[in-house]
Each structure stands twice: as structure tokens, then as C-alpha cells.
Write a structure and sequence with these properties.
Cytochrome Bc1 Complex, Chain D, domain 2
């Protein structure tokens, strides 16, 4: 075989080398499900699994086209269940203890349960603690880095403020604090108010506020 023929043969065989390399690498042909393919691994027979509750999709569609991810933000999915008895518009899902059309409705409309307080703590730690701190004393992480310090939630003035006042401050902002109306739902704002009351009570509780049995157990402890 002369040299030109040999060179032509090598050129013809070169594309086949890529196929040999692909056959040697299992990574090219990983076992996987195609979209919407059936699967016996789950009870509903679907391989395409729904998102877990609370997962927020990022970098999808137009979001992936910007470095900040803020261009034409996708709306958050509607929750499948209500944690608190108010919906996002403030309507009661359960019959309240007060008439919503009366002035009394400007007070705490939620039942102050441990679930409400845990939800309020969760939202407070996310949206409020960076400035107000987790204890509510106004010494949050951004304050330590130069942001104006908010007033302590434990001052007599704020302990005496109405629930409606605290709710309105969260909703519309106050001073350098911007409004959270578009960031925190109405039920979560009320839950934050309930948790603020728990924080205030934790720093300003009186022995007389306790039940007799609880008061006795504390008075009996060594000082």
C-alpha cells in the first residue's frame, strides 16, 4: 500500500476512534429515566417527582438569563396547605373569636399556640433578626456593621404598643425600616407579632404572671 492510500485509510478510520472512546466510557451512557417515563420505585409509578414542600425553584427560564436572577421573577407556588388560619388576603379560614369588622379585629386574630409562635419565630429570624437581633434588643448583625440601630422591642413604649401598631409597622415600614407587605404574608405578620410578644414577655415577665404551681416551683429554687 503506497503512502497516499495509507493516509486516506487513516483519515477514514479517525472518526471511528471517537466511537471507540465512547464505548469505553460508561459515563456517556448512564442509567437514567427520560422525562415522564414510568418507574416502579414509587407508589404512583412516576419517575418525574414533584418538588418537596417548601422548595423554591431558581435559575429556571428567564431567571437563568441574568446574573442576579431578578429579571421577571417567577411567582412562588401556592402552598398546598395553610399553616395558620388566615389566608394570604387576611381572610379567616376558621371562625375568629372576634368580629373582623369591629375594632377588636385589630388585635391578634390568631390563636396564640406553639405552632403560631414557632411560625412567628421562623419568620422573625429571617426578616427581622438581621436588624432587631434574635432577642429583639436592636443589636442585629447588620447593625453591628453600621446600619442604624432600631429601638429595642423591650422598651416600655414598644411593650405598650398595640398589636395593630406592630402589624402596621411590619406592613408599611417605619423610619429606615422598609415595608414588608410584599415580602411577608398577612398570617405571617400576625405570627411575628405574636412572637414579638413572647420575646417581650421573656425579658419582662413578672412572678405574679405565673400560675400558682409554677410560681411555687420557682420560689423554691435556691438563689
Amino acid at each position: 500500500m503506497n503512502r497516499p492510500h495509507l493516509l486516506s485509510l487513516l483519515l477514514l478510520l479517525m472518526p471511528l476512534l471517537g466511537g471507540c472512546e465512547k464505548a469505553m466510557q460508561n459515563m456517556y451512557e448512564q442509567p437514567k429515566y427520560k422525562p415522564l417515563a414510568p418507574s416502579p420505585l414509587w407508589s404512583d409509578g412516576r419517575s418525574s417527582r414533584p418538588l418537596e414542600r417548601g422548595v423554591v425553584a431558581h435559575s429556571a427560564g428567564v431567571l437563568a438569563a441574568t446574573s442576579s436572577g431578578r429579571k421577571e421573577e417567577q411567582p412562588l407556588p401556592t402552598p398546598t396547605e395553610t399553616v395558620l388560619p388566615l389566608d394570604d388576603r387576611g381572610a379567616f379560614r376558621v371562625k375568629p373569636t372576634t368580629n373582623p369588622s369591629s375594632g377588636a379585629a385589630r388585635h391578634m386574630p390568631l390563636p396564640v399556640t406553639m405552632d403560631t409562635l414557632r411560625r412567628g419565630q421562623n419568620r422573625f429570624d429571617i426578616f427581622c433578626a438581621p436588624c432587631h437581633s434574635v432577642t429583639g434588643d436592636g443589636d442585629g448583625m447588620v447593625v453591628r456593621r453600621g446600619f442604624p440601630a432600631p429601638q429595642s422591642l423591650h422598651t416600655p413604649k414598644l411593650r405598650g404598643a398595640s398589636d395593630a401598631h406592630l402589624f402596621d409597622v411590619i406592613t408599611y415600614g417605619y423610619g429606615v425600616m422598609y415595608p414588608f407587605e410584599d415580602r411577608v404574608t398577612i398570617p405571617d405578620r400576625w405570627a411575628i407579632v405574636a412572637y414579638i410578644r413572647a420575646l417581650q414577655l421573656s425579658q419582662n415577665a413578672r412572678l405574679d404572671d405565673l400560675a400558682v404551681a409554677e410560681r411555687g416551683s420557682i420560689e423554691g429554687q435556691p438563689k
